[in-house]
Amino acid sequence: ISVAAGQSLFAAIDQTGSLYTWGLNVDQALGRPTEHLNVLPGVVQGLPAMQAIALGDNFMIALSRAGEVFSFGSNSAGQLGLGHLNNAATPTRVRMTVSIKSIAVGATHVLALSHEGDVYAWGSNQYGQLGRPQPRYDSQATGLELPEKITALAAGTHFSLALSESGHVYAWGWNGFGQLGANDKKPRSTPTKVLGLTQVQAIAAGEMHAVAVGKQALYGWGSNETGQIGRAASQQLIPFPFWENG
Description:
The chain is mostly beta strands. Helices cover 0% and strands 48% of the residues.
């Protein structure tokens, strides 16, 4: 019912809610005792029924059907949300006081959305991707200040996106390729409204670019070195409609 793919990690959740992982087990990223190279899926033990899985750089974040978050793998920047910087070889529950609706994972940071529309973040904050200027990393889930209730999240390598109830997109974190859509390349530690976007219905983030589904068009911004946002320029600092209805 759900799959996720990383550079050398893979995961899938079946109809019963069981989580399977395979690929390279660097930093115990597969969440189970196994060999370094795994060509066949294996079940991760000790988990309740799961509904979603997201992959970062050698770590995984899993969301249960009950709204609980579990993490395992690399934890050098606190991206497991466990209150320390030690790797976890098996799934451990992230202590939160709210039920989580969805998750998004960057290279070394994590975003979580509650059913009430509030956003929580943890892990690396080197570029402000946790939505606050300090500290450099945070190993515990901490709430973000956003001007509106949020309905969806996305995470790039070191930047974050949020879609609001009113259809606006907010971005923060690393901005070296204009992936925050603010018409510059300055990093931001405060969620900032992406320019020129309204009535957005869905968002997604790549390593250094982002896309959004509008009411009548698809928009892209950020790095375009391999044509990933559909125009000639190598970078796009504000959203560009690369497909329009009609």
